[in-house]
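User: I'm designing a mutation panel for Adenosylmethionine-8-amino-7-oxononanoate aminotransferase and want to avoid disrupting the core. Could you give me a predicted structure to guide residue selection? Please restate the sequence first so the numbering is unambiguous.

Assistant: Good idea. Sequence first, for numbering, then the predicted C-alpha cells:
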Amino acid sequence: MNQRTKALLDKDKRHLWHPFTQMQDWLANDQLIIEKGDGAYLWDTEGKKYIDGCSSLWVTVHGHNNKNLNQAIKKQLDRVAHSTLLGLGNLPAIELAEQLIKIAPKGLSKVFYSDSGSTAVEIAIKIAFQYWQQKDGEPRRSVSGGPHKTKFITLTNAYHGDTIGSVSVGGINLFHKIYKPLLFKSIKVTPGDIIELEKVLKARHREIAAMIVEPLVQAAAGMLMMPKGYLKAVRRLCSKYGVLLIVDEVATGFGRTGKMFACEHEGVSPDLMCVAKGITGGYLPLAATLTTDRIYQAFLGRFEENKTFFHGHTYTGNPLACAAALASLKLFQQNKVLANVNRNAALLAKELPGFFQLEHVGDIRQCGTMVGIELSEDREAKRAYSSKIRMGHRVILEARKRGAIIRPLGDVIVLMPPQSIAQKELKELLAITYTSIKAATEK
C-alpha cells in the first residue's frame, strides 16, 4: 500500500461513517479507495483496475466518465448550478418532466422531484394519504369516526428506502426491526399470493389508501422474483377495490429489466411511480414521483383550503441533475441501450446455469441484467450459512483480488453491471464471480 493510500485511509477511519457498514470491521481492515472510472471500470488509489459489477450501487447506466453526460453537466454549469423550484421554474426540470412523461406508463402525467429513492417513496406515501383525505373536498371519515383510507399494503421482504415512511412500508427485519417504535403500521401480504391479497382488500379496502410493490423483482431482498402475471393481477385488484397502486421502480427502472420500466412487461399503469438511481445515468442525486392528473386534481383549491402538498427540499429539481438526466435519456436512444440490455440478459441466461456446478450455489435468480446468486452451506438440505461466516462478504473480497467490485445481500451475490457493458466485459465479470465463489466456499 502506498503512502498516499495509507494517509487517505487514516483520514477516512478518523472522520467517515459509512452507510450499511459495521464500522468496527471497517476500522480493523484495509479498504479500497476509488479514484477514477471509465466505462465499466473503476481504479483505486493503488492504480488497480476493477470491473464495476454492481454499477456503483445499481446507478451507473452508460458507464463512468461518459463524455456526453460530462458535457451536459458542464454546459449547464456555465448557466446556473442551482435554482429553487419553490415558487420558480427552471429549464432542465421542465424539459425533463416532459421527457419522463413521454416514456412513462400511460396515464402518468405529473412529476414531483426529490433527491433519492427513499424520498420518492416517502412522497408517494404522503400523496396517497393526502389524496384520500381531500379527494371530495372535506376530509372523509370512516364508519368508526376516524380518517378514512389511511392504511398501506406492502409485501413481506419489501425494501423501499430508509426514511421513516419508506421503512414503515418495508419488510426486511435486518434493516427495519430496530426502528419499529418509530413506524406506522402497514398491512403485510405474501408476494405472489393473489388469493391472500384479495381477501385483505375485500375485508379492508375502505381503510386502505394504497398498495406499494417493487415490480417483478424484490431487489434488496436478494433479487427475489415475482411470479409471471402477479403485477397485472395486483393492478386489477387495486382498481376493483378502489386502492391506489404505487410501483417502486427505483432499482428496476431505466432499463434494468430489458424495458425502460419493469411494469411495462405486464402492461401495468400505476397510480404513482417512484424512480431514482439510474435516472441521471449514475451521475448526480435525483429522483421523481410520477402520478396521474386525477390524483393531482385533488390537491388544487383556494389557498385557504390548505390542499397544497406541503413537501419539498432545497435541491428539488436541481438543474445540474436534471441536465444529466436529459442527456442520459438521449443516450438510451442513440446507443440503443435497451437492445444491449436484452443481448446481455440472453448471455446471462445462457451462462448462469453453469454456476450450479459449484456445490454451494443454491439458487440463481435473473431478470434482465439483475442477477442474484444465492449461496448455501448445503444445497440439498437447503441449509444457509451461519451469519458469522459472512460467506457473501468472503466472495466479494475474492472478487476484488481478481479485479471486480461486487456487493452481496447477505449470502446472495448480486450482479448488476452498467447497462452499457460490452459482452466481453460481462463474460469477464462472470468468470471472476465464478472463481471467487469457488475460492471462498472451498476454503
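For picking mutation sites, this is relevant: The CA atoms of residues 235 and 268 lie 7 Å apart. Confidence is low (pLDDT under 50) at residues 142-146.
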